[in-house]
Design brief:
single chain, about 35% helix, alpha/beta
Length: about 400
C-alpha cells in the first residue's frame, strides 16, 4: 500500500566535507573527500572523517549540557534559520516532534572525563553523566533551542539510527499525532568506536574504497544532519517511502545474499507505488568492507538491475555510524535540488564480483527519485525513497 508523500522543507548538515549544507554540496560536486588523520591518538593506523570547524557555545542555560554532540546540534539548528521559523509559525509546539538517532551520544566526553579520573582520582567538576553522556541530553538541547514540545525520542540502532526517525515521523504524521518533526542524528568520534571497529578488523589504514576490488575496510566519520518533515508545506523534496527489515542473520555481518537489504528496498519502493526503473540513483550503504559491498550490490542488482547509478558518499565523509542515514538522506535531497549525482570516490577498479553500475564520475541532469540505504549490525535495515516535488 502506497503512503502519502510528505514535504521535506529544510536540511542542515555538518561533517568532514563541510560545516554547512552549502559547503557539503560544494565538496560533493567537486569530488573532494574529507578523510584525513585522526585527532584522537591511536595505537594503529587509520584515517577518519573529522569535523574541523569551530563549534558554537551553548547558551548559558544549557552550558551544563555541553558536549561535542550537543554543540553540533546547536550548529545544525542555527543553519535551519528561516525554515525552522516557518515551521514554528505553521504548527503548535506540541505538534512538532524531535526524532533523532545516535550510537555514541556523549561517549567522547565521558572518555575525556575518565582519563582525568585515572590521572587525578576524580572526575572534572563540570562533568555530569546524565547531562553529558546520555542520549537524552541531545534531545533536551534540541527541544530547548527549537521550542518543539511534541513527542521526542532517540533511536540507537547502530548504523540505521538516524534513518529510522524518518519512518517514525512518517507514521506519526500519518496517524494524526503530529504535524511536523525535526529528524536526523548526530555522532562524534571516540576511542570506543575506533577501537571497536579495529577489533572487528573492519578499519582501513587508508581512505576507504567502497566497491573497489582492493578495498580493505571502512573509515569512521562524525557529524550530523537534520531534516524538517511536515504534513504540508513548500517542499524542497519529498519523503515518498520507507522500507524496513530485520534479518538478524549475524551480530555484525550482513546476510551474504543481501536478504534483509533486498526486503527493505522492496518495501520502500512498494510503499511509493513506483516501478523500480523510476529510481534514478542509489545512495548505497557502501561501507567499503568486503562483505557489505558484495551483499548490498547483490541486493541492488536483484531489485534494480545493473544500470542504475550507485554511489557511496561514505567515500567523502567516512561512515558516520548513527548519523549516516540522516546525512545520506539529506545528501539525496541535495541531488534532487541541484540536478546531479556525485561520483563515488576511489571506486575503481570495481570488484568483478560486483555487477552493479558504480558511478565513478559526477552525472549532471535532472534527478527525480533516489533510494538511500542504511544497514546496521544485527541485520537492522532501512531504505528511504526521496523524490522531487510533484
Amino acid at each position: 500500500m502506497s503512503r502519502t508523500p510528505y514535504p521535506i522543507t529544510g536540511i542542515a548538515l555538518c561533517n568532514a566535507i563541510g560545516s554547512n549544507a552549502s559547503a557539503v554540496q560544494k565538496s560533493l560536486f567537486e569530488g573532494q573527500s574529507g578523510l584525513g588523520p585522526s585527532p584522537i591518538p591511536l595505537p594503529f593506523e587509520t584515517v577518519v572523517g573529522a569535523v574541523e570547524c569551530e563549534l558554537p557555545a551553548l547558551p548559558k542555560k544549557l552550558e551544563a549540557w555541553t558536549t561535542r554532540a550537543t554543540q553540533i546540534a546547536a550548529l545544525l539548528l542555527s543553519q535551519l534559520g528561516s525554515e525552522l521559523d516557518g515551521l514554528r509559525e505553521r504548527w503548535r509546539p506540541d505538534r512538532i516532534a524531535v526524532l533523532l538517532g545516535t550510537s555514541t551520544g556523549g561517549a567522547d566526553t565521558t572518555e575525556k572525563a575518565y582519563r582525568t579520573f585515572l590521572s587525578s582520582g576524580s572526575f572534572p567538576d563540570d562533568y555530569n553523566l546524565f547531562r553529558q553522556h546520555t542520549f537524552g541530553s541531545i534531545l533536551h538541547v534540541v527541544r530547548t533551542l527549537s521550542g518543539a514540545t511534541g513527542p521526542a525520542w532517540m533511536v540507537s540502532t547502530a548504523c540505521t539510527s538516524s534513518a529510522k526517525p524518518l519512518a517514525s515521523a512518517q507514521r506519526l504524521i500519518s496517524s494524526g499525532m503530529i504535524d511536523a518533526a525535526i529528524v536526523g542524528g548526530i555522532d562524534t568520534l571516540c576511542s570506543m568506536t575506533l577501537h571497536g571497529f579495529r577489533s572487528l578488523d573492519a578499519l582501513s589504514k587508508t581512505a576507504c574504497k567502497p566497491f573497489n576490488a582492493e578495498r580493505s575496510g571502512l573509515n569512521i566519520g562524525e557529524g550530523g544532519a537534520f531534516l524538517l518533515l511536515e504534513k504540508s508545506g513548500e517542499p524542497i523534496a519529498m519523503l515518498e517511502g520507507v522500507g524496513e527489515s530485520s534479518d538478524a542473520y549475524h551480530i555484525s555481518a550482513p546476510h551474504p545474499e543481501g536478504l534483509g537489504a533486498r526486503l527493505a528496498m522492496e518495501r520502500a519502493i512498494k510503499e511509493v507505488g513506483c516501478p523500480p526503473e523510476s529510481i534514478d540513483y542509489v545512495n548505497a550503504h557502501g561501507t567499503g568492507t568486503r562483505l557489505n559491498d558484495i551483499s548490498e550490490s547483490a541486493a541492488i542488482e536483484s531489485i534494480l538491475g545493473r544500470d542504475v547509478p550507485v554511489v557511496s558518499t561514505k567515500s567523502y565523509t567516512g561512515h558516520m555510524l548513527g548519523a549516516a542515514g540522516g546525512t545520506e538522506a539529506a545528501m539525496a535531497v541535495m541531488s534532487i535540488m541541484e540536478g546531479w549525482i556525485p561520483a563515488s570516490l576511489r571506486a575503481g577498479p570495481v570488484d568483478k564480483k560486483i555487477a552493479i553500475r558504480v558511478n565513478e564520475t559526477r552525472l549532471d541532469g535532472r534527478v527525480d527519485r533516489i533510494l538511500s540505504n542504511s544497514f546496521a549490525f544485527g541485520g537492522n535495515n532501512i531504505s528511504v525513497v526521496i523524490g522531487a516535488p510533484r
